[in-house]
TrEMBL record:
Keywords: Membrane, Transmembrane, Transmembrane helix. It comes from Duganella phyllosphaerae. This is Uncharacterized protein. The chain crosses the membrane at residues 12-31, 38-58, 64-83, 95-121, 127-145, 152-170, 182-199.
Length: 227
């Protein structure tokens, strides 16, 4: 088991929480000038770098530990999108949200002893975890190079590189890919996707009776014309 240095973990936690807070603020605030965006990002990172309990990261770490590398990667990509003037995307893509939600459910059930599969402890494996991370890094790098699902693949690549090179955030592969906030975001995204699907089906069902008379009239016209 190869754990990261405690000082490195603390530095990562402060910086990562600063990026998370900055990404959230720039997502909900109105569009701002590049200088204002840079000021917000710098202020958030500086605020979380304050010593001890003066830092918001101190209290966030008590409740949520460290952000996963994947959440940090998503926040970096979100900040990049805001810098380029692109609108915020508040929900994950449906396929990604379903995957994160399912993996998180199995992992948390295993952690609480409901399934007792030992998956979390497998994330500390000195052989399997690094090999899996390296294989994932190669796959995500190829996706980024090809331009497929660029933001998600780039976030995944950041996560596995943080784990592979620095063993962050905790030395466990699962902690690099999942955390309670990220899992909650995926569950919310799945719920939003389900509500959108239900709304689309209702609109189709409401439109069907309105289209039926028009279809009957068109068929009658065709019949009369044929006769």
């Amino acid at each position: 088991m190869n754990l990261p240095d405690l000082a490195l973990q603390i530095v990562y936690g402060r910086l990562a929480w600063g990026l998370v807070i900055a990404a959230l603020l720039l997502a909900v605030l109105p569009a701002a000038l590049p200088r204002t965006k840079l000021l917000i990002m710098g202020a958030c990172v500086a605020l979380t770098a304050l010593p001890g309990a003066a830092s918001p990261a101190y209290w966030l770490a008590l409740a949520f530990q460290y952000p996963s590398g994947l959440l940090t990667g998503f926040c970096i990509m979100a900040l990049r999108a805001r810098w380029q003037g692109r609108p915020a995307r508040f929900a994950m893509r449906r396929s990604l949200a379903l995957g994160v939600a399912a993996v998180g459910l199995v992992l948390y059930l295993d952690t609480f002893g409901v399934l007792a599969l030992g998956l979390y402890y497998g994330g500390f494996s000195p052989v399997a975890a690094p090999l899996l991370a390296c294989a994932a890094a190669i796959g995500f790098a190829i996706n980024v190079w090809r331009g497929h699902a660029n933001a998600a693949s780039a976030a995944m690549l950041i996560a596995v590189l943080l784990f592979s090179l620095l063993r962050l955030p905790t030395g466990n592969l699962w902690d690099a890919l999942l955390d309670p906030l990220l899992w909650s975001w995926s569950l919310g995204s799945v719920l939003v996707a389900a509500m959108r699907m239900l709304a689309a089906r209702r609109r189709q069902a409401q439109a069907a009776p309105e289209l039926a008379p028009a279809a009957v009239a068109a068929a009658a016209t065709v019949t009369v014309t044929a006769e």
